[in-house]
Amino acid sequence: MNIAVEKVTSSKINEVDFDNLAFGSVFSDHMLECTYKNGAWETPKIVPYQPITLDPSSKIFHYGQSIFEGMKAYKDKDGGVWLFRPLENQKRLNISAKRMAIPELPEEYFMEGLTSLLQVDKNWIPENDGSSLYIRPFMFASGNGFHASPADEYKFIIATAPSGAYFSGKVRVLIEEKYSRSANGGVGFAKAGGNYAGQFYPTQLAKAKGYQQVIWTDDNTHEYIEEAGAMNIFVRINDTLITGPTSDRILDGITRKSILDIAADEGIKAEVRKISVAEVVAAAKSGELKEMFGAGTAAVVSPISGFGHQGTDYDLPELENSYAMQLKKRITDIQYNRAEDKFGWRYRVI
Amino acid sequence: MNIAVEKVTSSKINEVDFDNLAFGSVFSDHMLECTYKNGAWETPKIVPYQPITLDPSSKIFHYGQSIFEGMKAYKDKDGGVWLFRPLENQKRLNISAKRMAIPELPEEYFMEGLTSLLQVDKNWIPENDGSSLYIRPFMFASGNGFHASPADEYKFIIATAPSGAYFSGKVRVLIEEKYSRSANGGVGFAKAGGNYAGQFYPTQLAKAKGYQQVIWTDDNTHEYIEEAGAMNIFVRINDTLITGPTSDRILDGITRKSILDIAADEGIKAEVRKISVAEVVAAAKSGELKEMFGAGTAAVVSPISGFGHQGTDYDLPELENSYAMQLKKRITDIQYNRAEDKFGWRYRVI
């Protein structure tokens, strides 16, 4: 495939302080752009990062027909550039697309488009420890009309942002009992835009009470832990790691499933099963709850320092040899090409 | 409030065939635009209908933070221009805004902005019977960043489209048993963009089977009828009209509640209560199911000619004196200023 490249006339890279990167707030020089029109995806092209112009009746503004992915590019100490299980993102993008009635994107448009973009903007990939180039592939309805039906035109764009950590400081979570993230038979398993906006208000309420994230529970009984919206959730009771099964309400997280494989390899007993809130609270009270952590591309592995439930706060112990730290080290060592990759997850770009 | 008006240099109105209007696909000359920035809504202004330009990282593309309203302006035979219960839309916009963590808009920005826009584009309001000017107020996150949190900037826009009927032909519906529209504790009661995109794929599947719309049921048991996504649902069993109660899963439709008031005034017995699918199917089998219809701003009152459930199709009788037609005539007579408005619902613009 011949991907046309239109380069910037002057790079913005010297304006960026790579030692103090926030998450996803400065953007690289270029982006990949691909248009769906007349029933087909056109060949992607690389263009300078630039504004998008749309008719006010574009369906993205009205009907939330949008999906995205989150990925990272990692630079090793020799300047090699790596992706982590990119085909999983490509597949999930199309799973999300199908559910949201967006036309699926050919695999090669995604993979060749992404690797070409990274080659053009390779200098934007941070070398600092803990930083990476956050990659945001996204698709949205660009077709027009005030009729609640799928659009006839779409855009697929990949933009990238050199980024530091997603969370700063300790993460305390609130187990939610009133609001919900997703319905049975809904779109919770898709990375659909609307899944995120729906979480903002309950998360604001939780933040006002001193929590950073909400742990969502099932919408019918609020008895079972599901996910945290920006990450899947793991719970360690005694020496067993537990995470909920994926479903049509829960995102099939790539970090989540990698953590499960690594845990098995490290000899950590892990269970994939429904986790009741009652079990977590009882374990917290008895001291058997050793850890909770979130797992996701942006969050990597984020230890949770405590949780709130029905007006009571539960603190988690600070362990010297936590599973969270052990698993985080193992996965980031693979991602940054610092250790053997027995799973075949690394994908070399440069 | 002083709303600045920038007029088009030449109108597009002569290009429009007012005798053959589709729904929401041609747009009037002007739009109202209002920006939220630095913690406040700026004064709205009227500008030529024009493209919107956004950064690729604008949160509307990624997190579905968008809401809208649907309204109509009606022209009477003397050239008078009317809205129907516009304050209900204004209030609901802010109810939706709050749930989606979007800053609420002052009432006068909405009402003065809308009436000023209609004065500027009054020639775009169709005079043909059954046509009206569809009004689309919408709000979306225009602030930037790849962080799943509310934006710091928003746009509120009102665009208008001279429109004919929303549905053409008979409407057959499928009672959905696998997919769902909304969760308990979710955003189903809000006119949030993502509520609509999530319906597209199941609706495509239903269309492939010969239905125009899906009747959503509760996500937990699929035993109770909720709404049809683009409209609320009414069922007539014998001489009783029934519609489900509003909830956090069901939109508080303005047409729905007006229909209930009109029914009471017309001496039609109406019940607001949960309607089970089993009850509807049993009534269809026994011949007691006389009518089903949808009610909404776009759909007005749309008779349903039949429904599918678990592979069986049920046809509804064609009644000469249906409640649907009686109620539709009464509500449109009020909307178009053809009859007394004892409820005080009409709002004169010009």
Automatic annotation (TrEMBL), chains A, B:
Gene Ontology molecular function: branched-chain-amino-acid transaminase activity
Family: Belongs to the class-IV pyridoxal-phosphate-dependent aminotransferase family.
Membrane-spanning segments: none
Domain of life: Bacteria
A UniProt-annotated Pfam family: Aminotran_4
Gene3D superfamilies: 3.30.470.10, D-amino Acid Aminotransferase, subunit A, domain 2
PROSITE patterns: AA_TRANSFER_CLASS_4
Pathway: Amino-acid biosynthesis; L-isoleucine biosynthesis; L-isoleucine from 2-oxobutanoate: step 4/4; Amino-acid biosynthesis; L-leucine biosynthesis; L-leucine from 3-methyl-2-oxobutanoate: step 4/4; Amino-acid biosynthesis; L-valine biosynthesis; L-valine from pyruvate: step 4/4
Keyword hit for Amino-acid biosynthesis: yes
Role this protein plays: Acts on leucine, isoleucine and valine.
Xref: SUPFAM superfamilies: D-aminoacid aminotransferase-like PLP-dependent enzymes (SSF56752)
Protein name as catalogued: Branched-chain-amino-acid aminotransferase
